[in-house]
Write a structure and sequence with these properties.
The chain is α/β, with parallel strands linked by helices and 999 residues long. It contains 37 helices and 33 strands. The strands form eight sheets. A six-stranded parallel beta sheet has the order 4-7-8-9-10-13. The protein has a six-stranded mixed beta sheet with strand order 28-29-30-31-32-33. A five-stranded parallel beta sheet has the order 17-16-15-18-27.
């Protein structure tokens, strides 16, 4: 059954490890194996080669999780908490899925879902595996890592026979059955090792752990916390940490700090703050415990911090309360670290686990805070291999024995200015594609799939990264007629789906790479076009096309149609081509030189141009001999705020006048922009630059969270001093005052935005002029005269308008939209009119044979170094995705190389999965890999308890396969057995090359 984890016997575990490493060079999918060559620092009476590892949680629950962490460089392991309630009893209390780590992380699980004896077995198996690997593979000192127990949650439970047996068994495992199992296997399999001998096997210490982290439930009384710690110190002789909760900071501080960083939507009340350990009780307790451990030659410290309990308000998880961690926890945890270090003058050891990752761990460790454990970062794409980068980052950082109080204070104070700890103003769009997850061959390019023109993004990013700019611009121009305009101005919807954004919010440098290719390759492309000429499509010469409008849509139509061999003439009423990009968009966003290069490209195939000509009739153009007319004249009719009194200025008139350099001093000192889209942001930034203008304010009836403007456009406007006036609806302007209704947000409207509701109050805003930027309208006279039916917003049914030989593209087809949408319309016109295909480079998005390059990028965050800026950061998802494999703590999703198939295949191993749901969070498809991928079952019982499509090995060599609603036995060596070919080949490859996956 998929949510029941089946511990792997030690023999199978080691066979998996040894065979995979020999055949693939990896261990549980970890390719970036870290070999530690430096020394080790003391901790307790032990030593650690690196000061970090997995926090008590999903990444330290099973033996394979711990091994994966170890080979990736971790050396301090906070084992998942055990308590008296365990196994099926506990699992019944954990709703699934139980983890969502898309940005900040939330979970609704806490201690191990195994029984306590099973948990001990897993940890001892991991202990043996890491010892053997350290020696065999030269990963470091076999004694250079530490296992730290975590127990909870009350003294009675900790004293219970099974938890007591766990603690004693971890202190000395030599009398346990699992120890004997591991030791016997190692002795019997010495022939499988080159560097492990019997003497080494006999030398492995049975003292698996000498330290413990005390974990307590929220609301645990101070006296109980101290009793538990005292028991662990005096009765069990353990070096002891007490895990503290962020609630020590007090409700007001926590609420204010999270709100100031944009996490105001995270809901919690003061309940836990009132019931949890208080500062006044904690400090004297810590002082007593410091003295107690010192008397016994033991160590005492605090673990900062536990996860933070918050309310489920947006259906994040199927529970009422969940526990927050990750980057939103760091601001609370580092402040608590500051307070405690100041209180104890840096003498109290702090073990850290609150939002640490590659972006801050050098500073945290450099401040004398260690060990550092992590969960959220390794639950994201890259997974355990993020530890590999961290190992390298810490290699040259000297350890401090005491906490550096000033350094911690500096870390705390830097939070407010760091974008890392600030939530974006606007909610991030979903990264999911609205398509079901395929059973096989699921690697795709989410960026390309979300691009309106299906730009071959992975292909051109690879070319740019390799310095092949001529190739890159050729790939781009196949689908994109305006590489300079889009390279400067595209809001890059592709980035919303970019897997790299789970490493850094900006994702891969898609737009910047496009502009680099354009500037570096345009001359070569133009020369090639001139040399090669037009390769006409069949029948294209029969089309004489008039394109009304020389803006982005018209230029793109001219490019695609003339490239296909049509006779194209562009009719533009202004004297220069470029439309909104030329005449409206401010020069600080795009230069005329860049626009000129796009115009040059669009005319390179011979399209003719007539400027200063306003086409007013489709019929007249057809009478002149044009077979087709493409209406691409934009949307220039002004929108209106609807003021009850006073005058408003149209935003396009304003921006056009500003770009022409006209005198705009009449605007006065206080300019108000009404609107919240990108055009409004442009207007505000232009107005801010005008002489005589002192204040620019944007008035919007909702909050910035619901603004249609792109995040970066809003951020730039605010950074330049534009003031945002939220929840105000303009009524009228008179005598330099704009009177507004004050609004509140009501229920969401049909677009998902919460509808503003008037409160009855009014607010006055200084306004010497009001600029309306609420959206332009389509001028409908051309359509009306041509007999084209339009909707209530003046839009035709599509690019094919329904009238023979009349086409539409761009804003006059959609209403105000993005440049990339105009190009998409131009593609549609070319397809519909001439049957043009744009897939010349589609196959280059998948780079077979370059898989190792993709694997090399996994797990590494781009930390602002010079080397990082030399490439786009593209992960090559179409070649190697495997996000579900990366993020699975239990390694239950495995990548399989299948002979005969281009892509690696993902097989889900049912017995290793507890349905935490993390793989579903990061899968780019609208699917759940743990439910939707081809599943390998270990038993008939598990297969019968699951609905997954999958396979079970049979004693006679066949496989029982459930696929497409049918279950039957198949001989996968028989190509005619009746299975879908990709399913058959995947099962066959799993059997032939991945036999260690089978129980």
């Amino acid at each position: 059954m998929s949510d029941v984890m089946r511990p792997i016997p030690f023999a199978q575990l080691m066979n998996w490890i040894i065979t995979e490493h020999a055949d693939k060079g990896s261990i549980f999918g970890i390719r970036k194996i870290v070999r530690h060559e430096g020394g080790a620092d003391p901790i307790f009476a032990e030593k650690i080669e690196t000061p970090f590892g997995p926090a008590a949680g999903p990444n330290s629950q099973l033996a394979q999780n711990i091994v994966a962490s170890y080979v990736a460089g971790a050396r301090f392991f906070e084992l998942k908490t055990v308590q008296v309630m365990d196994g099926e009893e506990l699992s019944a209390c954990v709703n699934k899925p139980c983890i969502v780590a898309e940005d900040e992380c939330y979970n609704c699980e806490w201690s191990t879902e195994l029984t306590v004896p099973q948990a001990m077995d897993e940890y001892i198996k991991a202990w043996w595996a890491c010892k053997l690997l350290a020696r065999e593979l030269g990963l470091g000192d076999p004694d250079g890592f530490v296992f730290n127990m975590s127990v909870g949650y009350d003294l009675e439970g900790i004293k219970s026979p099974k938890v007591d047996a766990y603690i004693e068994g971890m202190k000395d495992a030599s009398k346990t059955d699992v120890w004997a199992e591991c030791q016997a296997w190692a002795s019997a399999n010495l022939n499988r090792f080159e560097n492990v001998d019997q003497a080494f096997v006999d030398s492995v210490s049975p003292r698996v752990s000498s330290s413990v982290t005390e974990s307590t439930l929220h609301g645990c009384p101070p006296a109980e916390i101290e009793r538990i710690a005292t028991y662990l110190i005096t009765e069990k002789g353990l070096n002891t940490y007490i895990k503290c909760n962020p609630t020590l900071l007090g409700y007001d501080y926590a609420r204010e700090r999270l709100d100031s960083l944009g996490f105001d939507y995270i809901a919690f009340d003061d309940k836990h703050f009132r019931e949890d350990l208080q500062w006044a009780d904690a400090i004297p307790m810590f002082e007593r415990l410091i003295k107690l451990t010192a008397e016994r030659g033991l160590s005492f410290g605090v673990k900062l911090t536990n996860t933070f309990p918050v309310d489920v308000t947006r259906k994040e998880l199927p529970s009422e309360e969940m526990y927050m961690s990750g980057r939103s926890l760091f601001p609370l945890t580092i402040h608590l670290a500051r307070r405690i270090s100041e209180q104890f003058d840096g003498k109290l050891r702090i073990s850290y686990s609150g939002g640490a990752d590659a972006q801050n761990i050098r500073e945290v460790y450099g401040a004398g805070i260690w060990p550092v454990t992590m969960a959220t970062t390794v639950l994201k794409p890259g997974g355990y291999e993020r530890f590999s980068q961290i190992a390298g980052l810490l290699a040259d950082v000297a350890r401090k024995d005491d906490v550096d109080v000033e350094a911690v204070a500096a870390l705390d104070e830097a939070v407010a200015a760091s974008p890392k700890y600030k939530k974006p103003v606007k909610p991030m769009p979903t990264h999911k594609l609205d398509w079901p997850l395929p059973l096989t061959s699921c690697f795709t390019s989410p960026c390309r799939n979300n691009c309106p023109i299906e730009q071959d993004i992975p292909a051109y990013l690879a070319a740019v990264d390799e310095g092949r700019l001529d190739d890159a611009i050729a790939i781009i121009a196949e689908r994109n007629a305006l590489p300079f305009i889009t390279g400067n101005l595209c809001p890059h919807p592709c980035g919303a789906k970019c897997m790299r954004a789970f490493y850094e919010p900006e994702g891969a440098a898609i737009r910047a790479s496009k502009l680099k290719a354009a500037r570096g390759g345009i001359d070569s492309l133009l020369a090639a076009i001139k040399a090669d000429g037009v390769k006409a499509h069949d029948g294209a010469a029969d089309h004489k096309v008039a394109v009304i409008g020389g803006g982005p849509a018209g230029l793109a139509c001219a490019f695609f149609l003339s490239r296909a061999g049509a006779d194209v003439t562009v009719l533009e009423r202004k004297e220069t081509l470029g439309g909104v990009a030329r005449h409206i968009i401010p020069a600080f966003r795009i230069s005329d030189e860049d626009i000129d290069r796009d115009v040059e490209l669009c005319l390179a195939y011979g399209a003719k141009v007539k400027t200063g000509v306003e086409a007013t009739s489709v019929a007249e153009l057809k009478a002149e001999g044009y077979t087709d007319v493409v209406v691409a004249c934009g949307a220039w009719a002004p929108g209106h705020v609807g003021l009850e009194y006073g005058e408003e200025i149209d935003v396009l008139e304003f921006l056009g006048a500003a770009k022409r350099g006209e005198d705009l001093s009449a605007l006065g000192t206080d300019v108000v922009i009404v609107g919240a889209g990108n055009t409004a942001m442009d207007a505000a930034r232009v107005a801010k630059r005008l002489p005589g203008v002192e204040n620019v304010r944007i008035v919007y009836r909702r909050t910035k969270r619901y603004m249609p403007a792109d995040e970066e456009e809003l951020a730039e406007a605010l950074a330049e001093g534009v003031e945002l006036c939220e929840l105000l609806a303009p009524k009228g302007v008179r005598a330099g005052i704009l009177t507004c209704d004050k609004m509140i947000l009501g229920e969401p409207d049909e677009s998902g935005r919460r509808s503003p509701v008037a409160t009855g109050e009014v607010v006055e805003v200084p306004a010497t002029s009001v600029i309306c930027a609420v959206g332009e309208h389509i001028e409908g006279s051309l359509y009306e005269a041509a007999g084209v039916e339009v909707d209530r917003r003046g839009r035709p049914a599509g690019c094919a308008t329904g009238v023979e030989g009349v086409w539409a593209a761009g804003d006059c087809r959609r209403g105000p939209a993005r440049f990339v949408d105009a190009i998409a319309d131009a593609q549609e016109v070319a397809k519909g009119m001439l049957g043009v295909d744009f897939s010349a480079y589609a196959s280059e998005n998948v780079r077979a044979g370059h898989e190792d390059e993709c694997y090399a990028r996994k797990g590494d965050l781009r930390l602002g170094c010079a080397a990082c800026s030399k490439n786009s950061g593209c992960l090559g998802c179409a070649t190697v995705c495997e996000a579900c494999c990366d993020v699975c703590p239990n390694r239950a999703n495995v990548s399989i190389i299948v002979p005969g198939l281009v892509q690696h295949q993902v097989v889900h191993v049912d017995g290793m999965c507890n349905e935490c749901g993390n793989c579903a969070v990061f899968c780019p498809w609208s699917g759940r890999p743990y439910k939707d991928k081809l599943t390998l079952f270990w038993s008939a019982e598990d297969m019968g308890n699951s609905e997954n499509q999958g396979f079970l090995a049979q004693p006679d060599g066949t496989f029982l396969v459930r696929v497409g609603g049918k279950t039957a036995a198949y001989d996968v060596d028989d190509a005619a057995c009746g299975l879908p070919e990709e399913v058959r080949l995947t099962i066959k490859a799993t059997r032939d090359s991945y036999g260690y996956l089978f129980a």
